[in-house]
Amino acid sequence: MTDQRRPSAGVARRSETSRRAVLTAAFELAAEVGYAKLSIEGIAARAGVGKQTIYRWWPSKGAVLFDAFLMFTTGEPGEGGGGESVEEAALPDTGDVEADLKTVMFATVDELNDPRYDRTMRALSIEIAHDADLAALYAERLNRPMRELKKRRLRAAQEAGQLAADLDLDVAVDLLWSPLLVRWLHREGPLTHEYAAALVETALGGMRP
Amino acid sequence: MTDQRRPSAGVARRSETSRRAVLTAAFELAAEVGYAKLSIEGIAARAGVGKQTIYRWWPSKGAVLFDAFLMFTTGEPGEGGGGESVEEAALPDTGDVEADLKTVMFATVDELNDPRYDRTMRALSIEIAHDADLAALYAERLNRPMRELKKRRLRAAQEAGQLAADLDLDVAVDLLWSPLLVRWLHREGPLTHEYAAALVETALGGMRP
Amino acid sequence: MTDQRRPSAGVARRSETSRRAVLTAAFELAAEVGYAKLSIEGIAARAGVGKQTIYRWWPSKGAVLFDAFLMFTTGEPGEGGGGESVEEAALPDTGDVEADLKTVMFATVDELNDPRYDRTMRALSIEIAHDADLAALYAERLNRPMRELKKRRLRAAQEAGQLAADLDLDVAVDLLWSPLLVRWLHREGPLTHEYAAALVETALGGMRP
Amino acid sequence: MTDQRRPSAGVARRSETSRRAVLTAAFELAAEVGYAKLSIEGIAARAGVGKQTIYRWWPSKGAVLFDAFLMFTTGEPGEGGGGESVEEAALPDTGDVEADLKTVMFATVDELNDPRYDRTMRALSIEIAHDADLAALYAERLNRPMRELKKRRLRAAQEAGQLAADLDLDVAVDLLWSPLLVRWLHREGPLTHEYAAALVETALGGMRP
DNA sequence: CTGTAATCGAGACGGTACGTCGAGTCTTGGG
DNA sequence: CCCAAGACTCGACGTACCGTCTCGATTACAG
Fold it and tell me: What mean pLDDT is predicted for residues C154-170?
């Protein structure tokens, strides 16, 4: 998103050291103090970097946070390449969709219940909610790969005849995960395995008798 | 939430004029400029009110916004009493759950697609996302009544045998509405009637064959 | 220059405490670190005052410095009233113009040779040199009274027949003091009593045989 | 001052093109924007030169300005040699000191009243006022030759018996030119031919009756 | 004619200060 | 006691330059 480093004739290249220091500082600060007190000044100070270095390479605080998240979540790259690790990962497949979905959603629940992850993810979520550009970036770089993974598992189930042949997998993914996200983000209730299980069961079986 | 007006023997009581001016200003500013540029200073100025008057009666910017939303959404009261209008309202009931749910969700979709409502609601959502107190308040005063309405309609369908007898209505409500909210808040895709319809159909029928 | 405090209906008046803290800090910092490292940020910090308070009441760093100089030089007032002390002061008058002028100019020389006064005065001089508004202010509020004093003494000598009847006293004052100032400001040579004495003698007697 | 080019066995020598581009840019910028907005970055940009090239050859912004002034004032050289043109120049000598002095001082007055020269000279004056090294350089390289010229003319008058035999010519030069400089630098009043004439007349005749 | 070392343009870097905005607190005078 | 007005301290914003530091790419002697 961020730099598309011009390999131009001119010169003077971006400092990889600074880039990593900034992203590390951003990630740690987000986890420690949360969105409200996350300032560019603070990130620069903690990273031992001039503010201008941040403004030079990222368009907004949210963009820094996003890249930080990207770096610590997917392998590394930050912008150009990769996320290979994500692409190669896969959701568990024991042959039992229901059980597998529960396994995965329980993990999500546990993650969101971890205070450090909660603060980081919440900060990112808030930034995404009021920055359309960042939202697009998030959808493409972080959400899409995750969604692909989920859809892949569901597609396997579909092919095994465990899910309806005409099921729209995107809708299915939303049906399963969105309630979790909303309950977490708006703190509408306790985020438990029970709730996640109920979600899976109801979504699979449908609301009708 | 907000004021628990001390009915003290002493003297001067809260100015209703100022209260309404503040909430009106907050609501309008939120709709016009969005979360990012919504400042207490701006609200006070537009309301023709001293900043202290805001700080005296509300604990945070989010609280003002919440009250503003409350005032313009439910009838009026703001804090003490009512929301009667909501309590008395009801979702349409033609006897066809699926059709009725679509009607209601189409309305939600249309609302969220209106730029003014989008900005206001987004500002409120963001405040809720990083203020647990406000989240509790929101859950109780704005979300709960709406959820009751929805559950009431679902319960009717349940009693009519159109929904499973053991269906957890809270889970059902989440299953239907959360995906809408997430897609809107994180701009994960276009918010259309088609999407809402697919949601209703899949949730009702379930994902299995 | 500075505030013309509006006694308006509204309210909220300027804090005298802050004003004095700022001027004191500015004066001391100028004396300690000199023009080059005199920053508004530094003044605010040393004064224990928000930067905005400086920007609210003074249009420039030079204006602060000027007011500081005014406060520590003339009695007090800073802007509205006074400088009475200056108005009432007088140059020595022993009846011997030459001796009296030397006395006064020796004092000036000594002052300019004091490092603290040098730094302060130099900072002020530089600000004046590149800010026409400040220059006007300086001419009116600091320079004019001093010049009046000098002219008064010269006028007495004129009336006593020691100076030419048609002598332009402004020109005379410039003739005496400007060389001192230039030599000091541009460090064109050592600033000594000898030099000052030569100035007085030559100016009085003229360059002709 | 500036480079003491090491004639090292090694290699590559200073680019004359860059040197002139820098000095030209500095001179023009000073004339256009004045001291306050004269930045090394700006000079480098306008000269099409890397910042390092400036820092490599000059110790300070003032030094660049000084060299620029030198180049555009005296013939050329910049540092090593010359100013021959100045050495060879001479003040007019009609045999009438008073008239000749007025001629020269009127020219000075006119120069200082030219906005472009005013800004340049003012910038230089300010730099000199807070940089002792630069002041020494200025005294030696720009002021001394000018002063020599003036003293030479005065010495001629002295030998012709028009000036006192024991007159200190340095004091005389200061007496005549300093008031002009102060009035200009501190904008103490209009810089006119009348004022210059009065200066000459009073200095020559003395203040006494 | 070629290697080699300094200089060149460009511009990123860690910093300091700028001048502005808004937060939340405090003070004043009027109702 | 509330209210408007607005000054206060404080902290962060995003920008401009500082002076230092790489980067290739010239460039001009020395071999």
Answer: 97
